[in-house]
């Protein structure tokens, strides 16, 4: 989250290590599944005021000054509203303003199997 990013950058700068950019893999948040921690493949900034890892995104960005933020996205989508096994989901769909999974399904952007509306990977809780 934002606090850790700022702490690592400050520690590096205090040690006189030049920092020009920070790559944030978890900018969209993390979720806990039966297989361990996974990223929330919803590709929306995890900036929910109370639940988000980056609730203070703008403050962090300003505090970093000239240090650039690098993020990425891929083609996997997680359904924020999918039911997870009891005790495995630590965040809720309430944190998201929208669901890219639902939008992709509604617009027909997913790969269709002959017996289903989409191909799902239950191990990663992603739509591939």
Outline the structure in words.
It is a single chain. The protein has 128 residues and is α+β, with helices and mostly antiparallel strands. It has one domain. Helices cover 22% and strands 16% of the residues. It has 3 helices and 7 strands; from the N terminus they run αβββαββαββ. It has a 3-stranded antiparallel sheet, with no helix packed on it. A two-stranded parallel ribbon has the order 1-4. The model has no long low-confidence stretch (mean pLDDT 82).
**Overall pLDDT confidence:** 82
Question: What profile does the largest beta sheet have?
Answer: 3 strands, antiparallel
- Report how far apart the termini are: 27 Å
* Shape verdict: elongated
The proportion of residues in beta strands is 15-25%
Low-confidence stretches: none
Reading the helices and strands in chain order gives HEEEHEEHEE
How many structural domains in the coordinates? 1
Q: Helical proportion?
A: 10-25%
InterPro entries: Sulfoquinovosidase_GH31
């Amino acid at each position: 989250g934002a606090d850790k990013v700022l702490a690592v950058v400050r520690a590096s700068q205090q040690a006189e290590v030049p920092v020009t950019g920070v790559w944030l893999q978890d900018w969209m948040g993390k979720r806990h599944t039966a297989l361990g921690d996974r990223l929330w493949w919803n590709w929306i900034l995890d900036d929910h005021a109370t639940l988000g890892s980056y609730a203070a995104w703008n403050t962090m960005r300003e505090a970093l000054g000239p240090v650039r933020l690098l993020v990425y996205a891929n083609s996997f989508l997680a359904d924020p509203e999918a039911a997870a096994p009891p005790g495995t989901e630590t965040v809720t769909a309430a944190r998201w303003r929208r669901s890219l999974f639902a939008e992709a399904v509604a617009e027909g952007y997913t790969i269709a199997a002959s017996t289903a509306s989409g191909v799902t990977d239950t191990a990663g809780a992603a739509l591939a």
